[in-house]
Amino acid sequence: MSALTIFFTEKMLRKYDLQHSEIQQFSLYNDGNLAILDRITDFARQLDRNPEAAITADFYTLILCLKDEISFLYDDIQMHIVPNTLLLIPPGVVVTRLHHAPHFTCRVICIAPSYASRLIPMGHNAWSLRQLLKQQPLMTLSQQEACTINQYCNLLQLRAGKQGMSHRQIIDSLMQTLLFELRDIATASGLAAPKPFTWAEYLFNKFIEIMESSYPKDRKVETYAKRLNVSAKYLSLVCKQVCHQTCSALINQYVARDIEQLLKFSPKNIKEITHEMGFPNPSFFTRFVKRHLGASPKTLRERWTRELNLTDTETAPDNQSK
Prior knowledge:
Layout (H helix, E strand, L loop, with lengths): L2 H8 L2 E4 L4 H5 L1 E4 L3 E4 L2 H9 L5 E4 L2 E8 L2 E5 L2 E5 L3 E5 L5 E6 L4 E7 L1 H7 L9 H7 L2 E3 L2 H18 L6 H22 L10 H15 L7 H7 L4 H12 L3 H19 L4 H7 L5 H12 L3 H19 L7
Parallel strand pairs: 1-4
Antiparallel strand pairs: 2-3, 3-10, 4-9, 5-8, 5-10, 6-7, 6-9, 8-11
Helix pairs in contact: 6-7, 8-10, 9-10, 11-13
């Protein structure tokens, strides 16, 4: 086995959905749309054993720190979470280099994107969770705000252990109230100004949600337009209106991001990645990668290897120190 193969095997990207066995293992409640994680310190300790492990998920993750601290790279951005901070991780973000303090305590709620959309319907002053995360994933809360969010978590945890005719409706109502509470906190801090949603913005958000939850991602605009019951031409016009980019450009950005994650963390070779991502042949795949990531797949993978090895050398403890 080559050194490069060993390197990428050790740093293989682990993908989680709400049905993953480890998520189920550490869930106090999990109905496929919503998971309330328990024993999160055990879960973090399990990941902490391999600090080079890379993980990603297809759901939103809400983390409220209650005690001590945790740090990790969030898509290569250093995150440091201390008490009274709230982190909202959107689907697809890659988390690496996780380290937590011995007495780290937090609340963790995992939310499927489709479920979040149902909880916050379109309407006047409707709110996009994805838009908030794009602006500011990490929020510093006041003591009162942190207590309020923690109380909602307590209510959800209490309700999770019960059943009854109205169980589903109660869980939905608590989650909806929690999300609107987050919106008010973000609005009060100037992170998310409320505004009416147009139909175009709603359709655009649904398009992004479909892309984020799809793997591998289809590169044809028609595929997404069909799922949204609109024409490809209309969807393209909506994308231009809302974000000033073409629909194809957005799709290519998301595909390029998936490719980058595979090149960084997967032990698969270029041919295998080409097949997994749905490209007809390695030559076409290489042209796509060069155009959207700036270099060939081989060059990018070698560059990542050098950069990470350099980082490991810089952060390694001095074995000669006494």
